[in-house]
C-alpha cells in the first residue's frame, strides 16, 4: 500500500501533514480515525456495509455482527469519530440500504454476479421483528446518530432505475436506498447553487429535490456495491469547496477518491480489505500527478 501506518502511530495526524492530496489507509476505520486530529475534514461521504447482506471476507468487518444492535452501536462509534474529525461546519452524507429479516434461513448461497453476496450465515431475526419483515435499517441508524448528537437534515432517496430484479411476488421490487445528510451543528456549509437542477418547464433552475435517479454502475474487479460516480458528485459539490478534505472511512473501490480528485478536492479513504484498497489505489493513482511512495 501507499502508506506506512507506523508513521501514524506516533502523534495525532493533521491532513496538512500528509504529503499528497490524497491518502489511502489500509486498516480499520475506527482505529485509524482515532489517529487524526479533530476538525480536519469538510465532509464525509460513505457507504458502510449493509447489515447481514454482504461478506467482505475479512475479520473486523462492519456488517457481519450477529445482532443488529451491535451493528448500529459500531456505526455510532465510528461516526462519533467522524464527527470529531469533521470541521464544525462539516457534513456527513451517509448512504445505506435496507434489508429483510432472514425468515429462518441461516445462510445464503453465492450470487454468480456478486461474490460478496455469499454469506456463511444469516443473522437471526432481530427481537421484535418477524420473518419477512423489512428491518428499517437506514432509519434505525439515522435515529441512533440523531440521538448521538448529529443533526439529521435530509433523507435523500437514491432511486435506481436499473435496480436488480427480485423474484418476489408479494411486494414491489426494491429500487431505492437512502442517503442521509447529517451535520454537526445547526448551521453548516451547503452550497445549494452548485447542485441546482432544471425546473420542470426546463427554462430555469430550482433547488435540488430529495429524489435522485441514478443508475448503478459496476466497477471492474469490485464484486460489491460501489457508488455510482454521479451519485457522489452532487454530495461533494454541495458539501465542500475546491481543495477541501473529503473523508470516506469505508473506501471500497475508491469511488469517493476518484470523484474528489476529479472535482479538485483532497481526500482520505480507509479500507480494511487489502484487495479492495489495492483496487482503489489502482483507480486513483492515474489521476494524481504529484505523488510519492
Ligand atoms: C459498501 S462497501 C463501500 C463501497 C464504496 N462506496 C465504493 O464505491 O466502492 C463497504 C466497504 O467497507 C469495508 N469495511 C468493512 N468493515 C470495515 C472496517 N471496520 N474498516 C474499514 N473498512 C471496512 C468493506 O471491506 C467494503 O469495502
Neighbour order of strands in the largest sheet: 1-10-9-2-3-5-4-8
Average pLDDT for all residues: 89
Count of the domains: 1
- Helix fraction bin: 10-25%
What string, H for helix and E for strand, traces the elements in order?
Answer: HEHEHEHEEEEEHEHEH
Evaluate the radius of gyration: 19 Å
* Major sheet size, sense and barrel closure: 8 strands, mixed
> Which cofactor or ligand species appear?
S-adenosylmethionine
Shape: globular
Total count of helical runs of at least 4 residues:
7
Q: What is the top-level CATH class? A: Alpha Beta
Structural category = alpha/beta
Beta strand %: 15-25%
Structure in words:
By secondary structure, the chain is α/β, with parallel strands linked by helices. The chain has a single domain (20-287), classed as Vaccinia Virus protein VP39 (Rossmann fold). Helix content is 23%, strand content 19%. The protein is built from 7 helices and 10 strands. The protein has helices spanning 6-9, 29-33, 68-85, 137-147, 229-239, 255-262, 274-284, and strands spanning 22-26, 41-46, 86-96, 151-159, 176-183, 197-198, 205-206, 211-213, 245-248, 266-271. α6 links the parallel β9 and β10 (266-271). It starts with 5 loop residues before the first helix and ends in a 9-residue tail after the last helix. It binds S-adenosylmethionine. S-adenosylmethionine is lined by residues 28-29, 47, 49, 56, 60-62, 222, 224-227, 250, 252-253, 255, 270-273, 276.
Amino acid at each position: 500500500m501507499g502508506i506506512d501506518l507506523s508513521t501514524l502511530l506516533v502523534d495525532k495526524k493533521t491532513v496538512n501533514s500528509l504529503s499528497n492530496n490524497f491518502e489511502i489507509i489500509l486498516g480499520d476505520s475506527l482505529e485509524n480515525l482515532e489517529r487524526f486530529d479533530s476538525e480536519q475534514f469538510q465532509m464525509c461521504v460513505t457507504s458502510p456495509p449493509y447489515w447481514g447482506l454482504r461478506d467482505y471476507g475479512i475479520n473486523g468487518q462492519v456488517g457481519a455482527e450477529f445482532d443488529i444492535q451491535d451493528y448500529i452501536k459500531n456505526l455510532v462509534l465510528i461516526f462519533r469519530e467522524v464527527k470529531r474529525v469533521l470541521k464544525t461546519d462539516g457534513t456527513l452524507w451517509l448512504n445505506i440500504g435496507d434489508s429483510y429479516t432472514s425468515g429462518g434461513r441461516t445462510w445464503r448461497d453465492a450470487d454468480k454476479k456478486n461474490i460478496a453476496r455469499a454469506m456463511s450465515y444469516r443473522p437471526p431475526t432481530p427481537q421484535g421483528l418477524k420473518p419477512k419483515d423489512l428491518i428499517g435499517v437506514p432509519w434505525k441508524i439515522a435515529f441512533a446518530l440523531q440521538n448521538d448528537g448529529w443533526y439529521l437534515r435530509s433523507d435523500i432517496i437514491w432511486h435506481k432505475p436499473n435496480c436488480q430484479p427480485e423474484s418476489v411476488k408479494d411486494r414491489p421490487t426494491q429500487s431505492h436506498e437512502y442517503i442521509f445528510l447529517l451535520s454537526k451543528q445547526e448551521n453548516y456549509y451547503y452550497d445549494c447553487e452548485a447542485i441546482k437542477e432544471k425546473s420542470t418547464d426546463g427554462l430555469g433552475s430550482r433547488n435540488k429535490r430529495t429524489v435522485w435517479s441514478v443508475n448503478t454502475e459496476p466497477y471492474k474487479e469490485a464484486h460489491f456495491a460501489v457508488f455510482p460516480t454521479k451519485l457522489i458528485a452532487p454530495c461533494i459539490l454541495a458539501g465542500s469547496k475546491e481543495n477541501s478534505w473529503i473523508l470516506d472511512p469505508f473506501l471500497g473501490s475508491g469511488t469517493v477518491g476518484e470523484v474528489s480528485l476529479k472535482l479538485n478536492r483532497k481526500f482520505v479513504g480507509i479500507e480494511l480489505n487489502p484487495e479492495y484498497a489495492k483496487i482503489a489505489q489502482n483507480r486513483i493513482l492515474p489521476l494524481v500527478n504529484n505523488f510519492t511512495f
